[in-house]
DEAD-box ATP-dependent RNA helicase RhpA
Amino acid sequence: MSFADLGLSDELLQAVESAGYTEPTPIQAQAIPPVLMMKDLIGIAQTGTGKTASFVLPMIDILAHGRRRALMPRSLILEPTRELAAQVAENFEKYGKNHDLKMALLIGGVQMGDQVKALSEGVDVLIATPGRLMDLFERGKILLTGCELLVIDEADRMLDMGFIPDIESICAKLPTNRQTMLFSATMPPPIKKLSDRFLSNPKYIEVARPATTNINIAQYKVPVSPRKKREVLRHLLRTDDVSTAIVFCNRKTTVRELAKSLKKHGFAAGEIHGDMDQPARIAELERFKDGQVNILCASDVAARGLDVKGVSHVFNFDTPWHPDDYVHRVGRTGRGGASGRAFTFVTPDDAEAVQNVEKLTGGEIPVFEFADEQPAEAVEEKPKGKRPQRAKKVEGADRAERAPRKETTEMRSEEPRRERRPRRSEPEPADDGWNGPVPEFLKVSALA
DNA sequence: AAAAAAC
């Protein structure tokens, strides 16, 4: 199966080819032909399945015919977050380079001026987050009556974010005679209701969930007391062959503080969360993408859909409260068939959350075994002299295959040193008292 | 318990 078999135009095939793609993903293979035949579509798919191209490609060919008019966009793509909207816009540019199509990206957090100007000149495709779209509509800057193609992307996330009333009101402004595509990772009842109401006789496509069942990603949980999280993280960052990592925290304040702390310890760390203004978010993401920083501390704004190549590690500095978020976070690594590693820090308070994750992903996540008994301290207390700040290396998931004592010499040279050190020069870090062995709740299967 | 999204 190749892209050429799907009925796309030659100009488009050329753009796809020069983007480096030869073979469509399952969702692309299934979705593109019916979309080209102007059918409505429901796509059950996660990010990372090639979902975006499955609607962007046929849309480009559909829009290639016809003319744009001022204030009347011909198509609309709704996205839950600004970052996702921007990413879809990038895709449109990449694949639409051989077509004369105009696009407008309507997202909040940036000035309206350029967006209004683009609209007044006429656009073929509108890529928008609901808030800004509604705002511009109420100001009379857009007419949606010419919008004959609608994509509702990440519908379940829109639901989580309370966007469903906005979506309904936007749908009501579009002509009833239109083509609608809805993508969602899951089909909760409100989304089912939405699709029954706004889609007609849709083609239904479902593709496998990619991320957590992805065997490319080695997943571990790391029991840790809250006060030692930073030390343990630094240890893992230094010893687990981390090239590029995203560190997810549950709170924006944690993201900020952690990034600051990592920088203080000499790591090239950046941060992204919703308290930063949009230009700063974009700039941070760029710094991460170009490799100016190789560690990105992030809130869940970066959990879904964010497509950065070559992320070797995901760390859940906090266990996510919702198991779905785990799936999305971990899916930032192991992309495009690469291998990835995901570590989830688990404190005693996270017992329930981690059980929910394991219930959802369908298996117990193994506890990571450090080569050293007290890894963090071993690294932290070392003098900052000539010795490399590096503890023993811990290799991949498969302990049996680990060249067991390749690092033996290094181990030997370290251990006596640590023991010789006088006790008082090794002040115990502030602790909340839980530093002991792996507690039972982490050992037993959560899938009783 | 958080984060996200319009001004």
Summary: The two ends of chain A are 42 Å apart (CA to CA). The longest strand of chain A covers residues 217-223.
